[in-house]
Amino acid sequence: MEANKAGVVERLQEAKRKSGKTYRQLAEETGLTNAYVAQLLRRQAQLKPLTAPKLRAALPELSEELVREMMNPPWRSYHPDLIQEPSVYR
After folding, report:
1. What whole-number percentage of the chain has pLDDT above 70?
2. Per-residue pLDDT, 74
3. Strands of the chain, DSSP E
4. Under a CB-based contact definition with an 8 Å cutoff, are residues 35 and 82 in contact?
5. Please, which domain of life does this record's source organism belong to (predicted)?
6. Cα(26)–Cα(19) distance, rounded to whole angstroms?
7. Are 67 and 47 in contact (CB under 8 A)?
8. What's the pTM?
């Protein structure tokens, strides 16, 4: 799953790069915050159905497949060394 997440995130970041827009510009165009746009494009937040058309308009390079993927709940993952840290279990 981790390789899949990395691949999806890379494709999302490539769409942003091709647009030449900053997170702030994307936020202004979509009416979202720049932090939320960044989370969406890193698969750390879930894209809501009402927001999808705005993001597609701002990033025309986003494929329908990527938009559907972004509407799924985000993946959570942890570095194996963190899981062994005792304070994680407290």
Report:
1. 79
2. 85
3. none
4. no
5. Eukaryota
6. 10
7. yes
8. 0.79
